[in-house]
Design goal:
By secondary structure, the chain is α+β, with helices and mostly antiparallel strands. 31% of the residues lie in helices and 24% in strands. A four-stranded mixed sheet has the order 1-8-9-10, with helices on one face. Strands 6-3-2-11 form a four-stranded mixed sheet, covered by helices on one side. A three-stranded antiparallel sheet has the order 7-12-13. A hairpin with a 2-residue loop joins β2 and β3. It is flat.
């Protein structure tokens, strides 16, 4: 029996969180390779810690991106985030680059050949999800957790804040009959300059929470937790090491939907961990936007070196207006779900990835330079027509 009344929680982390610093650097390097060669094969991982950044991974590209250029990109990313601290400074940090050529065994499986289309860069399962909880067809807890941190970051970048780059949020919403009705609690932990009290930080943060949450959704004052430990001066990679790909639930649906396990950042779009997850979200969002269901989960499965998806699964969570089996067949007809088909349909071979590194890969608006194409709802008319909706 479904819960009539329950609490659900999601968290977000800011662009200055150590793991997100690593994601940003990896995606900046990916973008540089794709700008020089749209067919680049890239898998770059980043480690950040006290005044040190380490780059590793493998690439195959005609773009002339040297180790020195990758170091420069890392410094530019850290500077853009805002780290100029004694323990982590864009100018002073040591950068080590261990990026090397891609394994020929991987290339053999991925590259097209005689009688063979481009294959998936790895085996795996990917999920996409959409629901009617918010205007962007995303689960509400993760949307509001992201928006609180984006609001704090905007004030910091405008020079109107005493807060630092590193922060985390957590939003717990009360659901009644499957719909969110208000926030039960909000947690924000944020780095700040020395000399601020916990009360000072609370006074800075609460207006941002109030601005983001819908009217009437603010939790009681004793359920708003701001810097619960009392002080957060040392932060970012100086306070904790960060790695590419460690915030996969933050990147997707905040735990409200399944996750296949693969991270996104630093990977070119032949890697289905990234491209097929985008495609699954694209399909799920269009299904919900077309009014065929209130909730939709889509799973795609791939084998390394094989172009076609091994399986396409649709779950409408008992909210659907159409047959799920028929919908599965139709979606495969509307979009070529091979790695090449996804890349071409969503135009993924462009330098569009650094902007995805923080505040979620989904629920974002498609932009004029080609980013977030997987958020478009351009299949709606075809879906409606197919089902007479």
């Amino acid at each position: 029996m479904a819960h009539e009344r329950y609490l659900f929680t999601s968290e977000s982390v800011s662009e200055g969180h150590p793991d997100k610093v690593a994601d940003r650097i990896s995606d900046e390097i990916l973008d540089a390779f794709l700008a020089g060669d749209p067919l680049s094969r890239v898998a770059v991982e980043t480690l950040v810690t006290t005044n040190r950044t380490v780059l590793a991974g493998e690439v195959r590209s005609t773009a002339n991106i040297t180790a020195e250029r990758m170091e420069q990109l890392a410094r530019q990313a850290v500077r853009a985030i805002g780290y100029e601290q004694d323990g982590y400074h864009w100018k002073d940090m040591v950068v080590q680059c261990h990026v090397h050529e891609q394994s020929p065994d991987i290339a053999r499986g991925v590259d097209p050949g005689e009688g063979k289309d481009e294959g998936a860069g790895d085996q795996g399962i990917m999920f996409g999800y959409a629901c009617r909880e918010t205007d962007v067809l995303m689960p509400a807890p993760i949307v509001y957790a992201h928006r609180i941190l984006k609001s704090l970051a905007a004030a910091r970048h405008d020079g109107n804040s005493d807060l630092g780059p590193d922060s985390k949020s957590q939003v717990t919403l009360l659901y009644e009959k499957g719909r969110p009705v208000r926030a039960a609690s909000v947690v924000v932990s944020t780095q700040h300059r020395a000399g601020l009290t916990q009360g000072d930080v609370r006074d800075i943060v609460i207006p941002h929470i109030r601005e983001v949450l819908p009217e009437g959704w603010m939790p009681p004052a004793d359920e708003i937790y701001i810097n619960p430990t009392g002080q957060f001066i040392i932060g970012g990679p100086d306070g904790d090491a960060g790695l590419t790909g460690r915030k996969i639930i933050v990147d997707t649906y905040g735990g409200a939907a399944p996750h296949g396990g693969g991270a996104f950042s630093g990977k070119d779009p032949t890697k289905v961990d990234r491209s097929a997850a985008y495609a699954a979200r694209y399909l799920a969002k269009n299904v919900v936007a077309a009014g065929l269901a209130d909730r939709c989960t889509i799973q795609l499965a791939y084998a390394i070196g094989v172009s076609k998806p091994l399986a396409v699964y649709v779950d409408l969570h008992d909210t659907g207006q159409v047959d799920e089996g028929r919908l599965e067949k139709l979606l495969r007809e509307l979009v070529d779900l091979s790695p090449r088909g996804i890349r071409e349909h969503l135009k993924l071979s462009r330098p569009i990835y650094a902007r995805t590194a923080a505040y979620g890969h989904f629920g974002r608006a498609p932009d004029d330079s080609g980013g977030f194409t997987w958020e478009k709802t351009d299949l709606v008319d075809q879906l409606k027509s197919a089902f007479g909706a």
